[in-house]
Design a protein that fits this description.
Structural class: alpha+beta
Largest sheet: 3 strands, mixed
Number of helices: 11
CATH topology of the largest domain: Beta-Lactamase
Helix content: 40-55%
CATH architecture of the largest domain: 2-Layer Sandwich
Number of strands: 8
Radius of gyration: 22 Å
Number of domains: 3
Order of helices and strands: HHHHHHEEHEHHEEHEEEH
Length: 242
């Protein structure tokens, strides 16, 4: 890894001050690719292009056609979001997976355990990749996925009491609804929104935020329409409306 940093210095990609910051981050345990993205002062796409060339890893084309949503949604949203991973397409039985992490394979390992699929990676800038994942899956996709899984399990869990007997209890959905609403609120704040519109229709729920005077639609999972009433109820509680 030291040789790679020296290569970047020799090619006038990295300055001495920045290289020292990268080395210090690596000494603290940060993987080199993440250290370069966080401490080098270089644009993310420049770091990713350099790493792809040095390690002969293809670059993900995020500007081309969107990935097949049937493929994307066949994997757990919580893993894709937590590790910033995006399945792009299938090739020779493997799934080509966009990632910004060259050396940390924990997310890919978790995805393999969950799906049984084999992967080949393509590198992409982290911010651009995260933005695309959110656009495709929708904000709060992991939370909605969890609610659907609970619902598919009839919202019942079995606990074992002190006598060893099974006891059925209902899963509390309120916490998940609150989490989803909070995710939307925090995202809107990060956008600098001045107001937020939840617009429930018969067959969908639309969310729009006003930023710089213009309403912008916030992508949310289609499945969230199943929880329109619960979301509206939560918003009434937050607004102290009867």
């Amino acid at each position: 890894m030291t040789d790679l940093i020296q290569t970047m210095i020799d090619q006038d990609i990295l300055g001495l001050t920045e290289s020292a910051a990268v080395r210090a981050a690596c000494a603290e345990g940060m993987p080199l690719d993440e250290a370069l993205l966080a401490r080098s002062g270089l644009a993310d796409d420049k770091v990713i292009e350099f790493l792809a060339q040095e390690f002969s890893v293809p670059l993900a084309d995020l500007d081309g056609d969107d990935p097949d949503m049937k493929l994307v949604t066949s994997f757990p949203a919580r893993i894709l979001l937590a590790h910033t991973l995006l399945p792009l397409y299938e090739q020779d039985g493997n799934v080509i997976l966009a990632t910004a992490k060259l050396f940390d394979t924990s997310g890919i390992d978790e995805l393999h355990l969950a799906s049984g699929r084999e992967f080949e990676i393509a590198l992409a800038p982290p911010t651009e990749l995260a933005r695309m994942i959110q656009r495709l899956l929708g904000l709060g996709a992991d939370t909605v996925e969890s609610m659907i899984q609970n619902e598919d399990g009839d919202d019942i869990q079995t606990l074992v009491d002190a006598d060893g007997q099974g006891v059925n209890i209902e899963v509390d959905e309120d916490a998940s609804i609150s989490r989803f609403v909070n995710q939307v609120l925090m995202d809107s704040l990060s956008r600098g929104a001045t107001d937020l519109h939840f617009e429930p229709f018969d067959d969908e729920l639309r969310v729009r935020a006003r930023v710089d005077g213009l309403l912008q639609e916030i992508p949310i999972p289609m499945e969230v329409r199943r929880y329109r009433s619960a979301i509206v109820s939560r918003l009434k509680i937050l607004s102290q409306l009867d």
